[in-house]
Amino acid sequence: MAESQNIEYKESWRDEYLKWICGFANAQGGRIYIGKQDDGTVIGVSDAKKLMEDIPNKIQNKLGIVADVNLLTENDLEYIEIVVSPWAFPVNYDGEYHYRSGSTKQQLRGNALTNFLMSKTGMKWDAATVSNIMIDDLDKESFDIFRREALRSGRMTKEDLNIPNAELLDKLDLLVNNKLKRAGALCFYRYAEKIISGCYVKIGKFEGSELLYQDEVHGSLLLMADRVIDLIYLKYLKAAVSYHKETRVETYPFARDAVREAVYNALIHCNWADNNPIQIRIDEDAMYISNSSLLPFGWTAETLLETHSSKPFNPDIARVFYRAGYIESWGRGIQKICDACKNLGAGEPEYIVHGEDIMVKFNALQSAKLPNSKVPNGSLEFGTLEFEILKLIHNNPASTASEMAKSLNAGLRTVYRALDKLKNDGKIERVGGKRYGHWRIND
């Protein structure tokens, strides 16, 4: 039997192997055999009787735990088996925390150590309270977005949502003794960067190593979730256009459902304590979405692509996104991403883990790929009236000027001026008559 997650072989005993026992105790448990070579061949130990007394005492004195120590015999050779159970509390060796991962022992440091200690104690980063943000400081638009999406998804009823904000936050378990949890503040506070300076999304369009243009999306997590996808598909991507009879068909190089799921995952699982924004890099051949985070202990990039349970890095933030209908709660998000990419014909995404950074790479559908342009699609600044009108037209080409004015809380004349500017710049055109026609966005 080869060495594995739960098996380790040592030819002779050294006190430093207490670190391996510490690693097993902090992980899934395991067995260490003293008197075996790496291939499992028994070579025996000469001082078995003394070791049978010393090892249990050293484990208890150094680590504060108890392990079974057994004397075994094979071919008249004595060797020792140390059976370590997984422990519910963190186990340390002289202040160091070790962890068994695969067939290796790792010393936990930095964010990995913080995440490990929080997981062992049951406390999560997003569950801590904030003292400088009050309920009255929270953002009306963020609550409006949540109520709209939660009702649309059917995850909450109109009766559930037609209550004061404080009661809604309490129902979402975002209050502790009337204080906001970090999750509540980040989800509903418009100025989230006052809590965590790196809490925003950065998007860039690249041609090779050259940055063509970029945007930053700021606000609460719900505001970012509501805006980022539209920004990517309106400004950063162009669709290949084909026709099925009289119907215009637009095919984007990246599956929208997959990108949306990946962005939501990044917002939920990001280790915001690192103060690093989510970064979305868009090239001609690929899109990369990366965020600071840590995989659950024992997981690898391959684990993500397998069937797995849901283990959100920020459970309280995940609960808000679930109630809003943005995500599932069964760990199926990555499977949905893969299915959407395959349905488009672009192949499965790649997950790349670099230390405390997790990146998903989407490969472009070659038949829908268009060459980069030095000028952004539409050349519109994110958040301007023209951009918001373009977004409305994208969602509903039959939108009227009056409907746009009402939706954007703008004057009708102001909307007409913006529409004229978009038409004069060649960004949109009117197809058909005034009464039965619709708008078309030009590529």
Question: Mind explaining what this structure looks like?
Answer:
This protein is of the alpha+beta class and 443 residues long. Helix content is 35%, strand content 21%. Helix 8 (221-236) packs antiparallel against helix 9, helix 9 (256-269) packs antiparallel against helix 12 and helix 14 packs across helix 15.
Q: Can you describe this structure in just a few lines?
A:
The protein has 443 residues and is an alpha+beta fold. The chain has 15 helices and 18 strands.
Give descriptors for this structure.
alpha+beta, 443 residues, 35% helix, 6-stranded mixed β-sheet, 4-stranded mixed β-sheet, elongated, 15 helices
List the helices and strands and how they pair.
Elements: E1 7-10, H1 18-26, E2 30-34, H2 48-63, E3 68-74, E4 77-84, E5 98-101, E6 104-107, H3 110-121, H4 140-153, H5 158-161, H6 165-171, E7 175-176, E8 179-180, H7 182-188, E9 201-207, E10 210-217, H8 221-236, E11 240-244, E12 247-251, H9 256-269, E13 278-282, E14 286-292, H10 301-305, H11 315-323, H12 333-344, E15 350-354, E16 357-363, H13 385-395, H14 401-408, H15 412-424, E17 428-431, E18 438-441
Parallel strand pairs: 1-2, 9-13
Antiparallel strand pairs: 2-4, 3-4, 5-6, 7-8, 9-10, 11-12, 13-14, 14-16, 15-16, 17-18
Helix pairs in contact: 4-8, 8-9, 9-12, 14-15
